[in-house]
Each structure stands twice: as structure tokens, then as C-alpha cells.
Design brief:
This protein is mainly beta. It has a domain at 6-62: SH3 type barrels (Roll). It contains two helices and five strands. It has a five-stranded antiparallel β-sheet with strand order 4-3-2-1-5, with no helix packed on it. The longest helix has 9 residues, at 83-91. It starts with 6 loop residues before the first strand and ends in a 14-residue tail after the last helix.
């Protein structure tokens, strides 16, 4: 993971701000942080060793300004399909029967 060990600030839907270092992020946007400082609206700041935030509770993730987003957002696996491949896959599609003659009756 490219963002591992980066310090981020996460704002939750209930207004709580969580600041910490990324351990992992799941495809469902669940975030695991270490060395956490959690600040709620009506409570004093709390320090935690580790926290897991459920992805559907995240309103916003604030990234550090010095982070190079161009290198992080590049996907080395992504390769656009060529037009030749698209044409050959379309020509290999099975032929359909004429309308009204689907079962041979």
C-alpha cells in the first residue's frame, strides 16, 4: 500500500476528528490508524494506540500537503484495451437466432 505510514486526519460523520498514522485501508474504506489523537466536539482530546474506523462513518480524509499525489494515484496495473482486442471480442460473440424463432418451433 502506497499510503502506509503517512499521517492523516480523518473527519467522521458525527464531527469527530481523528489524527493518526495509516496502518491499512480496506476496499470498503475501513481505516486502521496507530498513534491516534481523537478530538470529539463535546469531549476533550483522547490519545489512543490504535483505532479502526468503519468506512461508512468517514466524511473526509485530509492528506498532508507535502504528499506527491501524482505518484500515488498512478495505477501500474491499469492498461487501456486496444481497439483490435475490442473488435475481435465483438466478432467472437455468439450469433443470435432471428426474432420469433428462439426455440426452434
Amino acid at each position: 500500500m502506497k499510503m502506509q505510514n503517512e499521517s492523516v486526519q480523518v473527519e467522521l460523520k458525527n464531527g469527530t476528528m481523528v489524527q493518526g498514522t495509516i496502518l491499512s485501508v480496506s476496499p470498503a474504506m475501513n481505516i486502521n490508524l496507530k498513534d491516534v489523537k481523537m478530538t470529539s466536539i463535546d469531549r476533550p482530546a483522547t490519545s489512543l494506540e490504535h483505532i479502526t474506523i468503519r468506512g461508512n462513518q468517514v466524511r473526509m480524509v485530509l492528506l498532508p500537503d507535502e504528499l506527491n499525489l501524482d505518484s500515488i494515484l498512478q495505477d501500474p496495473v491499469f492498461k487501456p484495451k486496444s481497439k483490435k482486442k475490442l473488435e475481435t471480442t465483438a466478432s467472437k460473440a455468439p450469433k443470435r437466432a432471428a426474432p420469433g424463432r428462439s426455440r426452434g418451433f
